[in-house]
Design brief:
Layout lengths: L1 H9 L7 H49 L7 H15 L4 H13 L9 H4 L7 H7 L2 H9 L8 H7 L13
């Protein structure tokens, strides 16, 4: 009747054999499974890269802290306390992670300070203190090479600044 004629005008109907339909369905299902595997691998790769990045930052922090006997664990403690403060301030998860990373690497510039100065058993001379005071800028210079994480320089450069303007390197 008229109903069938209207359907025919709107849609071209084809009869697909049951076996052909099953073959098409199985083929589509196989492609979907492959796509899911690729998506899963991509997600896993991103997680692995993030994990590796954090592990490298923590290893660098341990390397920095190993230069001085009295500062072992200092960078990790700074990172953890900084993240706790950021959380208490209500910062978002990503910002809290960034604060943690900045804390880990805040003393990276000490790599360029001679061990004799860092491990000096006595009070530093003015000249030695001037050398120590270069570590924020050195850390800033090193970390500025990491273009994908430009915020890392913040903790390195300004962690010795003070509200009264008497800090360093810019105070």
């Amino acid at each position: 009747g008229t109903n069938e004629e209207l359907k025919g005008m709107c849609f071209e109907t084809k009869r697909i054999e049951k076996s052909k339909f099953k073959e098409m369905f199985d083929n589509a299902q196989e492609h979907i499974q492959k796509a899911l595997i690729v998506c899963s691998a991509t997600i896993n790769a991103k997680d692995e890269v993030k994990t590796l990045s954090v592990e490298v930052m923590e290893a660098l922090a341990h390397t920095i802290d190993a230069k001085a006997e009295y500062t072992r664990g200092h960078s990790v403690r700074v990172a953890k306390y900084s993240r706790m403060i950021a959380e208490r301030l209500g910062m978002g998860t990503a910002d809290c992670e960034n604060v943690y990373y900045m804390g880990l690497l805040h003393d990276l510039g000490k790599i360029g300070v001679p061990n004799e100065i860092i491990n000096s058993p006595s009070k530093l001379t003015d000249e030695q203190y001037d050398v120590i005071k270069t570590h924020p800028e050195l850390g800033y210079d090193i970390l500025s090479e990491i273009k994908s994480r430009p915020d890392l320089v913040i903790g390195a450069r300004w962690h010795h600044e003070r509200y009264d303007g008497k800090g360093y390197p810019d105070g």
